[in-house]
Write a structure and sequence with these properties.
Blueprint: E1 3-7, E2 22-26, H1 31-40, E3 45-48, H2 52-61, E4 66-71, E5 74-75, H3 90-93, E6 97-101, H4 105-114, E7 119-123, H5 128-145, E8 152-157, H6 166-180, E9 191-192, H7 194-205, H8 210-216, H9 218-225, H10 229-235, E10 245-248, E11 251-254
Helix pairs in contact: 5-6, 6-7, 9-10
Bound molecules: D-malate.
Organism: Candidatus Fermentithermobacillus carboniphilus
Protein name: Probable 2-phosphosulfolactate phosphatase
Family: Belongs to the ComB family.
């Protein structure tokens, strides 16, 4: 029976062994929302960078790529795009390679890779249902391949500057609830750790009111205070996207 755990912040990765595990990174506001939107709009792939310096170095190797990302929520000076998902429309990104660096999400993806996760997916409320379906299939496949080994899924919340974020933890709970309650799909029987049970409980306390979750979140309030309130509405559109970003050798692409 696959085990699912939730890491409330990337700090929880310290001392955590991800080797052999499937990981899913959540950064609702806004990296994983922007990634899902960019891939849905037809970008070729997204190369995550841990820093502005790394992004600029990558740009030298991929001069046609768009530089994307934020620091303190605002577009990095000299970059082509910031981190509002609404910027990632097909007229801007279709067919393009993106180099993306953000305060939390891209760093969490790098940390998951460094900790040896065998596959890394990205989830937000936008692609919640599709991510739940893909992860359930991957866990069932892993169980069939090696019945003796218990597959495990680590749901990693990006948080905000190392601290807990309500919206990521609630999204983790929503994802797990979808995986256990899927209609029509063969759903894996899951063993939930205490953090996973708590994430589902938190999500259920909001009765599906995603906008209230984002309005209650500290980062959501900060984004609104600097003029990005429209991003909260955009990031609240549950199941509006049907693709799942996953990390490949070439960068982040839509899982096939
Ligand atoms: C991120 O996406 O890494 C951060 O949460 C910051 C943001 O986009 O505002």
């Amino acid at each position: 029976m696959p085990e699912v755990t939730v890491l409330p912040t990337p700090k929880d990765l310290e001392g955590f062994d991800l080797s052999g595990s499937t990981a899913v990174v959540i950064d609702v506001l806004r990296a994983t929302s922007s990634m899902a939107q960019a891939l849905s709009s037809g970008c070729e792939r997204i190369i995550p960078a841990k820093s502005e310096e790394e992004a600029l170095a990558l740009k030298k190797n991929f001069p046609e790529a768009l530089l994307c990302g934020e620091r303190r929520g605002r577009k990095i000076s000299g970059f082509d795009l910031g981190n509002s998902p609404a910027e990632y429309v097909s007229s801007s990104v279709k067919g393009k390679v993106l180099i993306m660096t953000t305060s939390n999400g891209t760093r969490t993806i790098a940390a998951a890779r460094e900790k040896g996760a065998v596959e890394i997916f990205m989830c937000s409320f936008l692609n919640l249902g599709k991510t739940a379906a893909v992860l359930s299939q991957r866990l069932l496949a892993a169980e069939r391949q090696v019945p003796s080994r218990k597959p495990s899924l680590a749901v990693i919340c990006s948080g905000s500057h190392g601290e807990f974020s309500l919206e990521d933890f609630a999204c983790a709970g929503a994802l797990i609830e979808r995986m256990t309650g899927q209609e029509g799909l063969i759903k894996p029987e899951l063993t939930l750790t205490e953090s996973a049970v708590e994430a589902v409980s938190l999500y259920r306390r909001y009765n599906g009111d995603i906008m209230r979750i984002l309005d209650d979140s500290q980062h959501g309030r900060y984004l609104r205070s600097i003029g990005f309130g429209h991003d909260l509405l955009f990031c609240s559109k549950v199941d509006s996207l049907k693709i799942v970003p996953c990390l490949s050798e070439a960068g982040i692409v839509a899982f096939q």
